[in-house]
Amino acid sequence: MADATAHNVGPIILLGPPGAGKGTQAKLIAQRYGIPQISTGDILRDNVARDTELGRKAKAMMARGELVPDDLVNQMVGERLVKKDCARGFILDGFPRTVVQAQWLDRFLAGKLFDNQRPCDPPVVVQFDVDYNILLHRLSGRRSCPTCGRIYNIHTQPTRVPDVCDVDGSKLVIRNDDRREVVEERLRAYDLQTRPLAAYYRRSGRLVHIKGDQDVEDVTHQVAKAIERLRNAPVGTQSGGA
Ligand code: AP5
Fold first, then answer.
1. How many structural domains compose the chain?
2. Is residue 145 in some structural domain?
3. Can you tell me the mean pLDDT for 191-203?
């Protein structure tokens, strides 16, 4: 197989509701292509844990399952995307989440926001579709490793020893916002604010829908196939399934 880390990959956006598998797939795709995973949720949680100014502003909203204001998130993403490791491409996991964020990202990718910033290719956008009840089931069973970030699930992807990371032996944690009432609020926020983004990106012709309720490996395979098919496609010509 050709070396997938040798080419420019460009920006990849993973869209989908909480629990759709964005983080799981972003890690696998990042590894496959040798590009960074940029998870706005992880960056925000890290800021909350370190009690930074951004973390203090975001903490209460995240605990309620609401979105953090666009200007805070856009600035945080901009600071990350100008780093050198994003030059060949990057995967956005959890961003954009509103039309305002998508419009900001368009300006960023066109090279219009920072001095000396070169324009990027238009993004390949992958939308994961998963049933509501499956999302609830997955989120109720999610466990993550606080050391390496690996994501597990007591129902669907258990560790070899209960509650212990297979890779580094750390004790696994439950996310604060995976409590049932917060999950319901996060799903509501998704429906109202993030779901309209599929229509926003459909116009670019680089949006692909993938069924997220298949085995993890099958989803990864379809995401990679979509990236390779759409990477060099002219804007406005293609969309649909993988
Ligand atoms: P964020 O961390 O982005 O959370 P989210 O979008 O709600 O998504 P999740 O991380 O819950 O789910 P996922 O799709 O990554 O699924 P995963 O792979 O873990 O955001 C958290 C909060 O931060 C927001 O509520 C908001 O307050 C704030 N925020 C973040 N970004 C923001 C932004 N841009 N603007 C404003 N605010 C922002 O999988 C879930 C479970 O399912 C796991 O246990 C996994 O093992 C399992 N699983 C995954 N795939 C499969 C499969 N194929 N089969 C079986 N099980 C599977």
1. 1
2. no
3. 95
